[in-house]
Design the sequence.
């Protein structure tokens, strides 16, 4: 999926156009996917979609990269057929409301705290995640938040809540991960990033990974299909074929073999579908 096509898709949604995923008799069925930005920024999506379309001819995935919060809003309105997201609390709420049909965790990586190489807050020396956050709060160093209700922003808010509140020198970018990393790099500030986005677009900004490895920084990615009982027009059957491929041996191998500079960015989660409470198709 090219960035140009994604931008056209986004423009249609913003304009309120009823963009229905329908294929011509002589062309592929088009399935609309709203996905977290890290999957696109890392290059994984560009590797996965052609592999799927070779394996399952006749279906074309049209992807829109947005934060998880926005992706779930699009799904709630029936503007997309499925989502690929990474904010468990928001996902569980979405499923509890009966807005999703089938769901499966497909892969995982982790979040990391990144910042300037000279590390004025001495985050690198912290022994625990709590200590790292405390050092950030007490140092007066700037922390740049995405502030966009994405999965990364959801995780960050939960971490600051546990730590007792955000630091005083706290700015929200309101943008995606790569843009937020650029701002942090320009300001010599810290931020929370998923590892794949940092490796894809943060390494040339004078920033380093300063804290990693805490179990609570695990980052799980899940695919959820829009419930066709709520939105009968969605391409449920075709979207389900994409989900099934992602959790198949072929799909999981594609995820696990994707590398950047010799580093695997995402780790396959499982080879078996984990169903959400069944909503079932309308057909």
Sequence:
């Amino acid at each position: 999926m090219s960035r140009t096509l994604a931008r056209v898709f986004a423009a249609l949604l913003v304009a309120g156009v009823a963009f229905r995923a329908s294929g011509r008799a002589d062309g592929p069925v088009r399935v609309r996917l709203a996905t977290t930005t890290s999957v696109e920024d890392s290059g994984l999506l560009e590797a996965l979609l052609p592999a799927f379309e070779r394996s399952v001819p006749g279906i074309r995935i049209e992807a829109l990269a947005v934060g998880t919060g926005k992706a779930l809003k699009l799904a709630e309105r029936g503007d997309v057929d499925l989502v690929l997201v990474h904010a468990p609390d928001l996902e569980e709420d979405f499923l509890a409301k009966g807005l999703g049909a089938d769901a499966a965790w497909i892969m995982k990586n982790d979040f990391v705290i990144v910042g300037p190489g000279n590390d004025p807050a001495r985050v690198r020396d912290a022994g625990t995640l709590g200590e790292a956050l405390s050092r950030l709060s007490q140092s007066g160093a700037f922390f740049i938040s995405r502030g966009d209700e994405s999965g990364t922003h959801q995780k960050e808010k939960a971490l600051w809540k546990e730590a007792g509140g955000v630091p005083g020198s706290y700015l929200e970018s309101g943008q995606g991960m790569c843009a937020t990393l650029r701002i942090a790099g320009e300001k010599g500030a810290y931020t929370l990033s998923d590892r794949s986005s940092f490796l894809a677009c943060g390494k040339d900004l004078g920033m380093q990974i300063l804290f990693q490895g805490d179990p609570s920084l695990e980052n799980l990615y899940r695919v959820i299909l829009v419930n066709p009982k709520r939105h009968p027009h969605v391409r449920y059957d075709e979207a389900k074929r994409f989900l099934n491929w992602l959790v198949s041996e072929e799909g999981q191998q594609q995820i696990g073999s994707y590398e950047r500079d010799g580093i695997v960015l995402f780790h396959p989660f499982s080879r078996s579908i984990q169903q959400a409470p069944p909503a079932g198709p309308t057909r």
The chain has two domains: 3-109+220-268, 110-217. The two ends are 29 Å apart (CA to CA).
